[in-house]
From TrEMBL:
<dbReference type="GO" id="GO:0015416">
    <property type="term" value="F:ABC-type phosphonate transporter activity"/>
</dbReference>
<dbReference type="InterPro" id="IPR000515">
    <property type="entry name" value="MetI-like"/>
</dbReference>
<dbReference type="InterPro" id="IPR035906">
    <property type="entry name" value="MetI-like_sf"/>
</dbReference>
<comment type="similarity">
    <text>Belongs to the binding-protein-dependent transport system permease family.</text>
</comment>
<feature type="domain" description="ABC transmembrane type-1">
    <location>
        <begin position="82"/>
        <end position="244"/>
    </location>
</feature>
<feature type="transmembrane region" description="Helical">
    <location>
        <begin position="88"/>
        <end position="108"/>
    </location>
</feature>
<dbReference type="InterPro" id="IPR005769">
    <property type="entry name" value="PhnE/PtxC"/>
</dbReference>
<keyword id="KW-1133">Transmembrane helix</keyword>
<dbReference type="Pfam" id="PF00528">
    <property type="entry name" value="BPD_transp_1"/>
</dbReference>
<dbReference type="GO" id="GO:0005886">
    <property type="term" value="C:plasma membrane"/>
</dbReference>
<feature type="transmembrane region" description="Helical">
    <location>
        <begin position="24"/>
        <end position="44"/>
    </location>
</feature>
<keyword id="KW-0812">Transmembrane</keyword>
<keyword id="KW-0813">Transport</keyword>
<protein>
    <submittedName>
        <fullName>Phosphate-import permease protein phnE</fullName>
    </submittedName>
</protein>
<keyword id="KW-0472">Membrane</keyword>
<keyword id="KW-1003">Cell membrane</keyword>
Amino acid sequence: MSNVINLNSLATAKWNKRTPIQNAAVFMIWFISIAFVVWCFQVMTKDTIWAFIYDAPRQMQDIGARMFPPNWTSINELWSPLWETLNIATLGTLLGTAMAVPVAFLAARNTTPSSTLLRPIALFIIVSSRSINSLIWALLLVSILGPGVLAGIIAIALRSIGFIGKLLYESIEEISPTAVEAIAATGACRPQVIAWGIFPQVAPTLAGITVFRWDINIRESTVLGLVGAGGLGLKLNAALNTLA
């Protein structure tokens, strides 16, 4: 009889995904989240002039109509800044790569001569380079070197050290030790081990990282002229100032 009662109670029992306390906790989480989103929206839009928002489609249509057909006569003024931009990106990438390679070998655990002194310094250089934007580097260098292409090249190079150095030192730490041990077993010195046992393994990675960074630097060097570092950014800044 008791077995029949237990079976009946089990049959009539209702399964719930959560307990009442858990349901209340989920409800409070959703309530607080929605309230936080509403508050953020109010903070972000408290200074918004909604008349401009309502007028945005008409302004967009007006700008689009004035963009076509383009005025091709002004393209002759862009060849020289375009060439400067490509030079800034290319030379900055090459200079940054040349400085990033030794920093990467000092930062890698399996190639650094000193894990207590040189490796922390190399990691600090990588982090510092990656933490400062190219525009900030350009601002500092323009104030030191004056406006021009040289400031842009060095700014791109200093920014590239952290990017290339980080990816390269991680690749160095993942190399196969077999080739390194074979070169060292022949009596090779440390520079020879690096040149013939380590560098050939990371050379394809370095080439890929450099091309990737060069692609990024072309974009970044385009806007460096906004702070006087040469390139297309000078023309862009002039167009912005005249609302052209």
